[in-house]
Every structure is written in C-alpha cells, then in structure tokens.
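User:
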Amino acid sequence: MSSINVAVVGIGNCASSLVQGVAYYASRNTRHGLIREVVGGYQCTDVKFVLGIDVDARKVGKDISEAIFAAPNNTTVFCNNVPKSGAKVIRGRRLDGVADHMTQAGDRGFQVDEGPDATQEEIVAALKASNADILLNFLPVGSQEASEFYMECALEAGLGVVNCIPVFIASDPVWEARFRERRLPIVGDDIKAQVGATIVHRTLCGLFTHRGVDIARTYQLNTGGNTDFMNMLDRQRLTSKKLSKTEAVQSMLSRRLEDGNIQIGPSEYVPWQKDNKVCFMRVEGNQWGDVPMNMEVRLSVEDSPNAAACVMDAIRFCKYALDRGDSGALIAPSASYCKHPPQQIGEETADRMLDEYLGRAEIAAE
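Assistant: Predicted structure:
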C-alpha cells in the first residue's frame, strides 16, 4: 500500500503522542495499544506526517519530529528516537485558535510567533506542495473561526479531513454537503479516547439501561494540567465541548435527562497533573421496586496517548474512503471514534458497521 500523507494543524500534546506512536510501532515488534492493526490495507506505520501548522514561536520552523517536544507540550515521552521527517512546521493563521489568557501564561501557555499570519492561498499552496491526503485538526477547543478557515483550505486543496475537536463540521449539514460536493470524506467531530471518560460513561449508562435500571442523575467531572484544560478556563470556549460530551452520553439513555440532572464537562485546571486527566463519575438510578442505587468511578489516564489510537484508525478510514471515492461524513467511523458524529450509534453496532464497510462481513460469510 502507498503511504498516507497527513498534514497536522496544531502541534500540541495530541500531535506529539500520535507522531511518537508511529515511530514507536515502526521500531518495535509489538501491536499492543492498537484498536485495529490494519484498516483498508494500511498499517499505522504507513502514516507519514508531511506538514505541520502552528502559531507558537517555539514550534514554527522546526521539523515536526522536534516541534512535538517543544513547550508547552507536556505529555509522556514514550519514544525518544523519533526520526526527522523533513517536514517543517509552518506559521498558520491565529484567528480564534489561541485564547487571550493563553498568551499570558508564560511557558505553560502560547508564545505566538511574531511573523504575519498565513493567507488562505499560502496554506493551500503548502498543503498541495506537501502532497497531503488528509488534514488533521488538533486546534484548541473553541477554535470555531480557525477551524472553518482550515476546512476551507482543505476543500480547496482537495484533502480529506479528520476533525478531532468539538467544532461541528462533519455533523453540520451545510459543511457536510460541501465535502460531499467536492467528493472528499470527513471523519468527525470531537475524537473519543481509547478508554476515556466519555466511552466509560457511555458504557456504564448503556449497562444500566440494558439491565432495566432507570437513570435519574449523572455527572462526569474532569481535571487535568495540559494546555487543553488551561484553554478551557475560558468558559466561553466550552459550549460545543460540553454539548459534544453530553450528547454522547444522552444518546445511550432510555429517556433523555433534563439539563439539571446531567452535568458533564471539564471541572478544573491543575497544573501539576500535566497531561494526566482524572475523571470523577457518578451514575444514580432506580432498580426493581424503584429502589435507588448509584455507582462512582475514578478514572486516571494520560490524555493525549489515550486519543491517539482512535485518531490513527480515523486517519486510515478516511484514506480508505478516499481510495474508494466515498465522500461526505463517514457515518460508521465518525460514530465509532467521535463524540459528536452526524449519527450517534452504539459502540457494538458501529464496530459491526466498520467491519461491513471494510468488507470483512462478506469475507467471513464466505
């Protein structure tokens, strides 16, 4: 198979874990941690990072292999020997991609490059010159204008998209139609974690519902010390994030909870946690005879590696769709790997749909 050429917008912790992971699996005879070893004939080591886009002065101009370790990135370094890619990080366009308070946070925040913002023509030209197949959106939560700018660039350059953040593109009918018209696929929106707060919460709520327990109230509160949590101290940037996470859980309930009985979203920024995310979860319900019961869970994960496995699968499904000539929002990959897909589908059903999309069901039947 040919390589999958990926351009990355936002060289933060998530990009760091993803790039490290490709180098890690290329140098070791292990597949531990992968959700799917092969997707459409592509292994994770077939992914090549051909262009980085950022606005932080500590990253612009560097090879991607170096930029992923620059401050303020603070995720776990599990692969020190990431080979140079020859792909540089170029200066992008700021717009609303950097919250004002993030520029006043010293080494923990952003140090915006003083160069001029790139134009749409410059970004499109760079995407085309890189021979990218897919644009990966890792911008901070709340980057509505910046995300839409890069979506325009992807459409003009003819790239598929994996939208990892809670800016609604794949799940917006107008944007989805534009990708369909250009015969380009998109996976989105808001990437799930491999085993993270949302999928655990969905699974527990699905279990309660399946076993006849009526859920009355639930919450999910998260703390972390990475730039994602610092960025979300600006509560105005949280609207789509809270909606994305809440709808992912609501979709698993037998009856929709009123707003006052469900609370899901980031709780607090704790600097010393770095990229470690701690989730506190509670589900209350009534079982046989309306007798109350509750469950509490504490989940601790390294946030960015936890997302990388889902991103890796989403990239490969997007390239598989490009190869097939499929376009628009990819329903099964979006439902399986994203919190706010165009259609909410349970994990088991979505996984079966993925197999059918890859043709495995037909092969097994033979």
